[in-house]
């Protein structure tokens, strides 16, 4: 059983299921220099009434609420929720392990569908989107593929950024596959780069299978101190439970290591499932310690329904994480 790479002809923005209207809940104050359709957390210019308060010397007369003034016998001014545009950044794992899929979807194609669905909706609302792609090559590459732009320019840049990156010509095993050291750096370097380059507060969505073993947890937590960060773990069912199919040839897409296993062995399948569950639990704890919301999306699940449930739950609950078994959660867990 080998991991199947994406075909070169696969579109960078696959025609996945369309996302229905959704209001992404911003749990941190975001910054934008232009007025826009995004409802901010601070008071300012806008259309949505936030509160009333007594008139002060610096207030504009046009903001006086004359009905409230007549009722209270004191001048009252209207305060509004400030409407701002915002920047949305996608940090996208483009390593070889994301090219695995045991069914009709690879992990990469699911991630691309999610990115394109969210990005096109945000672009239509007047926001700006950008992307930072990273992979496991030696040395690790950071692809500052798309600046935060809006409208058609933002869509065109994102479509180009989602195309698979050309890999260097093979000159031996070292360039074909990542070494253990570099494979454990890519996500950490991407998080460090995002923390250093994102000046204004933004929504940051990290999409990865999180197979990297480096110390990325504290970098994710540091990024979440300033930005509204959400982690999407993309998983395949075959990574969680080994099927009973007899003799299987397994190969690690990033390191190139391979081995034969007898999947008829019940104890082997149990150990495999137990190791997968333990890894998912470690990830859940890492997201909790980093203080970020996280959702696991399966290549065989209804990821649109899972996303919509996640967004609704996130609107009313501070921190949501993936289930310990690594499969999408329909209820979430308060960390």
Structure report:
By secondary structure, the protein is α/β, with parallel strands linked by helices. The protein folds into two domains: 35-84, no CATH class; 87-316, Rossmann fold. It has nine helices and ten strands. The protein has a six-stranded mixed beta sheet with strand order 5-4-3-6-7-10, with helices on both faces. The protein is elongated, with a radius of gyration of 23 Å. The chain starts with 34 loop residues before the first strand and ends in a 19-residue tail after the last helix. The model is unreliable at 1-13, 32-47, 169-176 and 326-335 (pLDDT under 50).
List its traits:
9 helices; 6-stranded mixed sheet; two-stranded antiparallel ribbon; 2 domains; 10 strands; 335 residues; elongated; disordered N terminus; Rossmann fold; alpha/beta; disordered C terminus
Strand order of the largest sheet: 5-4-3-6-7-10
Secondary-structure class: alpha/beta
Number of strands: 10
Q: Shape, please? A: elongated
| Average pLDDT level | 75
- Which CATH architecture of the largest domain is right? 3-Layer(aba) Sandwich
How would you describe the oligomerization state of the chains in this entry?
single chain
How many helices? The count is: 9
Can you tell me the residue ranges where pLDDT is under 50 for at least 5 consecutive residues? 1-13, 32-47, 169-176, 326-335
Beta fraction? 15-25%
The biggest beta sheet is recorded as: 6 strands, mixed
CATH class of the largest domain: Alpha Beta
Question: In CATH terms, what is the fold-level topology of the largest domain?
Answer: Rossmann fold
Approximately how much helix is present in the residues? Answer: 25-40%
User: How far apart are the termini?
Assistant: 37 Å
Order of helices and strands: EHEEHEEHHHHEHEEEHEH
């Amino acid at each position: 059983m080998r991991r199947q790479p994406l075909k070169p002809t696969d579109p960078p923005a696959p025609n996945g299921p369309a996302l229905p209207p959704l209001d992404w809940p911003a749990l941190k104050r975001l910054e934008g220099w232009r007025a826009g359709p995004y409802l901010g957390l601070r008071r300012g210019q806008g259309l949505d009434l936030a509160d009333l308060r007594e008139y002060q010397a610096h207030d504009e007369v046009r903001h006086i609420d004359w009905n409230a003034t007549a009722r209270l016998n004191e001048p009252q001014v209207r305060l509004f929720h400030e409407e701002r545009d915002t920047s949305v950044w996608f940090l996208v794992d483009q390593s070889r392990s994301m090219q695995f899929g045991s069914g009709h979807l690879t992990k990469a194609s699911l991630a691309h569908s999610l990115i394109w669905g969210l990005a096109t909706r945000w672009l239509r609302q007047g926001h700006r989107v950008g992307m930072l792609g990273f992979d496991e090559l030696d040395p690790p590459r950071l692809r500052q593929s798309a600046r935060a732009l809006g409208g058609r320019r933002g869509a065109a840049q994102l479509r180009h950024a989602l195309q698979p990156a050309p890999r260097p010509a093979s000159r031996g095993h070292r360039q074909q596959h990542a070494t253990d050291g570099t494979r454990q750096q890519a996500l950490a370097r991407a998080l460090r780069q995002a923390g250093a380059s994102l000046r204004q507060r933004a929504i940051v969505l990290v999409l990865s299978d999180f197979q990297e073993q480096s110390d990325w947890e504290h970098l994710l937590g540091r990024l979440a101190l300033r930005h509204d960060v959400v982690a999407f773990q993309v998983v395949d069912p075959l990574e969680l439970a080994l099927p009973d199919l007899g003799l299987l040839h397994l190969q690690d897409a990033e390191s190139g290591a391979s081995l034969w296993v007898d999947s008829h062995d019940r104890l082997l399948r149990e150990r495999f499932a137990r190791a997968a569950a333990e890894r998912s639990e470690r990830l859940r704890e890492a997201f909790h310690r980093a203080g970020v919301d996280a959702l696991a999306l399966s290549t065989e699940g209804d990821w649109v329904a899972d996303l919509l449930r996640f967004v609704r739950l996130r609107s009313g609950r501070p921190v949501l994480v993936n289930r310990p078994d690594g499969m999408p959660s329909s209820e979430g867990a308060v960390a």
